[in-house]
Amino acid sequence: MKNEYIDINKIAKIKGLKSNRSLRMAIQKGKYEAREVTVFGGKSYEILYSSLEPELQEKLEDELIQETAQSNCTALVPVNNKLQTPSFMSDRARMTALARVDVVNELTKVRSQYKTKKEADATFLELYNSGLLLPVVYRFLGSISIGTLHRWLSAYEETNDYRALIPGYKVSKQNEYNSILNDEMKQVFLKFLLHPNKFSLHKAVHLTKSILEKRGYTALPCDLSFKRFAEHYKKNNYDKWVLFREGEKAYHDKVEAYIERDISVLNVGDVLIADGHVLNFQVINPFTGKPTRATLVGFLDWKSTALVGYEIMMTENTQCIASALRNAIINLGMSPKVVYQDNGRAFKSKYFQNVDFDEEGFNGVYANLGIHSVFAKPYNARAKIIERFFLEFQEEFEKMMPSYIGTSIEDKPAWLKRGEKLHREMHRKMNKNYIPTVQEVIKYIDCWIDYHNSKPCPNDRSMTIKECLNTVQKQDIDKNILNDLMMKTEARTINKHGITFLGMHYRSDVILGVRDKVYIRYSLFDLSKVHVYSMKGEFLCVAHRVAKIHPMARVLGTVKDMEEYKQQYQRQQRQFKKAKKEFQKYFPTEKAEVLEIEPEDNVIDIQPIIEKPKRERKLRRRAEAGEACVEQDSQRRLMRVPKKTPREQQMNKPIFNSNYEKYEWLMSNGTTNPEDRKWLADYMRSDEYYNLYGD
What contacts 2, CB < 8 A, 6 or more positions away? Predict the structure, then answer.
């Protein structure tokens, strides 16, 4: 192949040139070794293969291999006078072939009217290119040359089959692109093009050329070549493009297909989808009286796509979710089988998921109601159809509210932007700075839900959302039983104030003398009382919330304040009398007899008596006065234990089983070293001391 000559038009096509003009100029300058050949209609050139650039030689060899393989597989030339049907033929290719057949047939007719073919062909070509002959075909095929006309005629006469005139477009394989860029250029370019920092196309090309120049490249392709390669790569490798440049979440959202779910197998009430949504308009905070953005927690029925229960509170907390679930169960008339919910902290609390109390027999709300909970993947909004509901809620309801502030900084209304005095004044006149309360918002949402439920059901177009929702078989829901099942469980330690919970005190006579940990169960809808259980799950009592009384009820309080003070005081007296009565059972008021016990020789259980200096001086005077006093004093000293030094007391300190035993021993015997005094001070500030001894 080195000594072969290649047609200049073929080389121009390989290089991606629209014409062979630049190649002709290169031949005249002596860049290529060529020869002049005569073709139909003029002169042309053929270039020696060995004089071409190495890159062009490689492309020619590749093209030769592809043409050979294509001729063996889907040849459009006769093989044993028979055409093989190509593997794929578009409608346009078939129409093009039939139009060319019309041109060839018309040329045959014109030739029969003239003496010479040259004259007939020239006349036909002039009439055809002017649009006067075969105008419809001309608009479809466009102008043609005399050479093209002769090629069509020759191919059709050899086979007499229109398929021989099918355009011989080269169909490249998937992800195959004939580019002037070599492998090294592509590799360097893709490193910047697919970088996670998302370089712009212009910057990626600039950096690529800088690196290639440092590696010794002098003649680099133009920016357009890099741009075309980038466009082709993005179209044929979109998954890699998104994953490398934008990350996994973008890959899941833009590339991965949705999992098709058959909603027809579900019934109304089988699955509720729960999620929280921060309202895009302001409401009046009932606690502060200031405008703020509240949170709506909703439960959506998957089958009917109806919002069966919701609650509006300032933050997404446990109480808000529980209230929304309660409303959903009451409105639906049944307890759902599954709750498909958000992965948020409030939804995963122990109140719903019974994390800490399974072993003690205390279950979460979902377990009590027989509901199976399923959590959605984090940051996967497409898996929850309630997100689509919130989008519709935003467009149809939130944007209609006068206090609408937008979903983001870029999306906020004009009257909230800087310098928009006209819009701000117009908003003030039209809406009068109206901000609704929570109760008003609930009324507005209920009205919009009625409108929304009148639309056709997306999962069953034969009925509306409301009609689909009414197909459920409702049950009699006892609100008291529902409230009991939705009670929350927490562990608390009883102190002198009773049970401290949420900044309030709950008391009962049953737990007056108890200083231990207990479980309390309470309803988020009634905080006036709590149910108290032991750590083993045994019911103890119902503790009621202690009402705060007027500090000067007798002087400045009302009759009600006086009555409350009187009742609490009488309760204290009853409790004290009860404890005193129990005390008298063990320690009666009659005179107790003193039992004299002979001390054992090997046991001395007498606490040392620390004599005062004044007492010692008196004994010394008695000893000087007479022997009788000395004997008596000596006998008394024999009956006493000699005074021990702090070192001896420290060595005789017993081993304590608990902190309160150590505290009692130190308070009885005193502290003998700085370590004991420090420990005593720390213990008096501990919770154990507070629970046992009070303030």
Answer: 49, 50
